[in-house]
Amino acid sequence: MTASAQPFVPATGDLPTLKAAAPGCRGCDLYRNATQVVFSSGPHDADVAFVGEQPGDAEDLAGKPFVGPAGAVLARALAEAGIPVERSYLTNAVKHFKWHPDSRGRRRVHDTPARTEIMACRPWLTAEFAVIRPKVVVALGATAAQALIGPSFRVTRMRGQILDWPAAAEHPANFPALRPPARFVATVHPSAVLRAEDRDAAYAAFLADLTVVAGLLGATNGHSSAVRPAPAPPAAAARADGRTRNGPTR
Ligand code: SF4
Q1: How many domains does the chain have?
Q2: Which parts of the chain register pLDDT below 50?
Q3: Among 69, 107, 117, 139, which one has the highest count of C-beta atoms within 10 angstroms of its own C-beta?
Q4: How far apart (Å, rounded) are the C-alpha atoms in residues 130 and 150?
């Protein structure tokens, strides 16, 4: 049988209903080694939804997304781009922490989720989007982009570009259609900034992508912020697409 969260996702329900059901999910094997499910943070009527890869070590222990080092990078960039965190919904493509012990058995090392695990967890994501109905969707890193758009999407080539949502999605009918259409932007996972050889350049490129998002939010909210294309990312940041052989640093 194909792994899927679908049998565990309430057919209808608000955000508290989804959050209450998520700890019971057995849609794939990732719940077995995780401390707890890490669902989301942010209001049910958020303007923008940020989708990351999966909880890291700190998130797994805290039960909240983006509370580790990568979350600090995201928080700084949101503030500097002018994106109100109180209007932002933060979630992950995969809700349980996938990891393996290091050689001494002391540290939990992040593993990138498999395509089967990403697809197993997708019903949670589509249920969240049905509630939130975000005006702007932001994929943070390759795993999130591939969960939303499909396996052929390349963050390195497409980061900062504006696409229509859900038209750009893999199986767009899974997501609510808005009038006018919502917009989609992909960028790197903030952990890629922490791993980059030139962190300043990587952060500047990340901030430029979020500035595009801020412009979209200004436009959808009737503010005067113009939608600006992202500048070409520095080479160091362009190499960082949210993945390494051992996955993102959290
Ligand atoms: S990772 Fe997703 S599909 Fe797998 S058990 Fe956790 S919530 Fe369910």
Answers
A1: 1
A2: 224-248
A3: 139
A4: 19
